[in-house]
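User: Predict the structure for this protein chain, please.
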Amino acid sequence: MQRLKVTVSCPSCGAPIEFLEGSNVSCCPFCNLPLFFQSPEKVLSYYLESKLSQREIPFIVDRFRKEQEQPLSSKIQDIKLYYLPFWRFSTQVFYSRVNLTFLAPQQEEKEVEILTKDWDTNFPAHLSNDLGLVTLGMRPDWLKLRLLTDLNCLKQGQILDLETNPSEAREKALRGLDFLMQSKKSAEDELILKLLDENLSLIYFPLWVVNFITEEEKYYQVIDGVVKRTLLQKPGYFDLRLNEKKENKPSYTLKIIPHRCPNCGADFKVADFHLVFPCDNCRKIWRISEQGYQPVQGELVAPSGEKIKAQSKSIEYYPFWVFEASPQKEKNFNIEKLAELFPSEIGWFMAKDKSRPFLFYIPAFEIKNLNKIPSISLAFTRIQPQLEEKNREQEKLQGAIRSDEDAKKLAELLWLGLLYSKMNLDVDEWKDLNFGNAKIIWYPFQQEGAFLTDLFAGYSFQKASWGQNPPEADSVPTFFSTP
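Assistant: Here is the predicted structure, written as structure tokens:
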């Protein structure tokens, strides 16, 4: 999805740091200090600086009136700067369309596709005053945000009140998403979707309001403080209306602290959107949260020792969230029971130990093509690899970009895709699968240029990330069918 650029001052040297919106960590390019943006609140606030000074306003007022072939202003009464708050909601949507007519018995299995789509929307959080701006437009090529760490950053203007809270903002955004997604399916389809990487933020936009008099009457204009153009002109005097019933106060609590291991003090690797950071010095693993760093118990596994020794120079370890999956009514749901439900899934029949719990594997690392996430997950889940645990020595572990909560959502969607692809299953009976006992496990992959190949299933994919500009359209579908 399109991510805007954000700037903030380094707490160590004071130099400007530029990073992508939504980043958890960054690094000062001047003093090389790794930084972690810690906030007790999930909603971060940003603002845009006005590119206008007060003395430029009369020229913009008359320019607009001249373009409209109207008399120029004769007197400027007052000029005020306001900051209009906008909610911005973004998420990565994974969804599937299932044709309900397929549920009748047929001879062949049905392919079920999983698609991905970015959803990004913004709208004003203040509604009492019509200021002529209904969307930010999000011009990502040049629009740069500043991280709002203190209200004093906006002391030169008046901050307009929030009149919708975060919960109401999310509901409004999801209504827009639902309207869009419903247009993507026919009346016979059931739409199944999961939202990953949800991000809600506040952006304060500078608007200048000027009251002036012409030869005939009073007018006011609202001027965009970023692109320096008039958005709105109306007759009369602009008098700010306040909604006294609303008490939704924004939170600006934010700490910028060194991004270092809490145990040994070693610098962590700076990876913008990662959530889990293994320490290469003391070998402990940490997960970042609103409260700071939390320890995580992780495992490292390997295939046969001889294979690892032969390829050790090109081995990289990547994390998966692994869940024990079981229906609510089945306490001892294992691979043997799963193989009975899915007789066409050869891999589950070939598992060495069919008494093991059924495990679901979701990649926690960043990859270039989002379409590959379901594919990699199914490759591991269908094999149910039983690998020996390995002690971490000098191996460097890659960090995790996906939380266990998001991984669980994706596991639920993939499970439904498997169910809907089979003809002999009662979907309603088996769809409510529990995904519990989440743990993070690092698996070995062999690096071959820009590609990675796992060492037991032979699955290859391109490891590089899209960065700030992934594909805008729906991705190529991933199909659930008999391998």
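Residues 332 and 357 are 7 Å apart (CA to CA).
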